[in-house]
Amino acid sequence: MNFEELRSRVSYQTGALALMALVVSAALTLADRGTRDAIASRKVADLKASLTQVIPARLYDADLLDDVVRLPMGPGAAPLNIYRARRHGEISAVAFTVVGQGYAGPIEALMGIDRQGRILGVRVTSHQETPGLGDKIEHRKSHWIFAFEGRSLNDPAPPAWRVKKDGGAFDQLTGATITPRAVVQGVKQGLEVFAAHQRQLLEHGPRREVPREEVIDGD
Amino acid sequence: MATDYRHIVRQGLWENNVVLGQMLALCPLLAVTGTATNGLGMGLATTAVLIITGSLVSSLRRFIPVEVRIPIYILLIAGVVTLVDMVMNATLHALYQALGLFIPLIVTNCAILGRAEAFAAREPVHRAALDGLMMGLGFTLVLVTLGAVREILGTGALFADASLLLGEGLSFLELTVIPDYRGFLLLMLPAGGFLTLGFLLAAKRLLEHHWQRRGTAVGSSSSQLVLPAQKGCTLCSSSCNGAMT
What we know:
The complex is a heterodimer.
Chain A: H1 3-7, H2 10-54, E1 68-71, E2 80-87, E3 90-101, E4 106-114, E5 119-126, H3 178-196, H4 198-202, H5 212-217
Antiparallel strand pairs in A: 1-2, 2-3, 3-4, 4-5
Chain B: H1 2-15, H2 26-32, H3 36-59, H4 69-91, H5 93-99, H6 103-107, H7 110-118, H8 125-155, E1 157-158, H9 162-166, E2 175-176, H10 185-188, H11 190-218, H12 234-244
Antiparallel strand pairs in B: 1-2
């Protein structure tokens, strides 16, 4: 029987499709096994790199991923990972992710806060805002995000935690108001979470409550 | 054979250009062309996938039964894109952070399935790879043009943040075309993408019309340059051809 005849058979067609699915799945499984560890370590490195941007080096002498506590955020919401920076064993600062509702979807930012509740730094880690307009919240594209540094819940006073267009203290971006409004709101909420749980977050509990795999997955 | 290759090059870059000729891949096109830099990133990633899937489909073409070819192509394309995504994440992490956003979008690019069906499935490997390269470059060209027009008119800059995409070496591309520009929001939004694309398509038609008129006036062989591009969905027209054979 020649190949042309074989190729027109239903059993050959089914077999070809099944074989192809098997080959592709096998390739993907192998690639996943081969790259999983490398990708996980890249994620750890990425997370560390972001954390070092919101917590200055003078405030910690231990691995920033060594002391993570999970703060329950109420029913239905995922718990919040709080990364605690320690210097000489003392907790000097905390960092966690805050979320604001932007123009095109959620805007996630990492913020660092010192013991006194002052903002050490904010960095947007993921967003879908309009390129060229809303993306100026990224620190690599404009200086806007640095305006939060040194601020706290009472500086400016709570009613002024808005963009200038809404009567607040923070600049909006040219052509984009919803985006900075969302970031200001998210940062303010972050400060409120810190204020509400300050004692719990700064007390010297046991280190490393969360296994590292979950630290990365929860990110 | 040289003229044969030249034909593939001309088809990919101009006459049968993925966007301007075949009107395919409009979804990723409009999604990422807010800036020229993003267009370049998407274009390069798509070109790589087009070359790989073209060669794969071409080398397997004798074994793929016609009746189940589409699921097999989709399987191959999705598999290749996922593989590229994982391997790039593990080994070229800096590049992945810049292009990673675009890679999953490539699976939805119908131009890749279109080329597998219309070209790679019936041509030898080296021609399929060249076709992938040229179709990819043609796509990149349109993405960068569209991104550049929208970026200049929308923000007054060109290739902003190109150094973030492929390293500091590209920072010379970053230009401020119109200083102290207030910005033009409409062009940065999706509607601006559609408008700009419309003007681009009209410009291509005008150019071809112009060449045709000049070609017939001179009566030279250059009139063959201006054959109207094949319109409509390649996938449909080629499956019609398939039914006839």
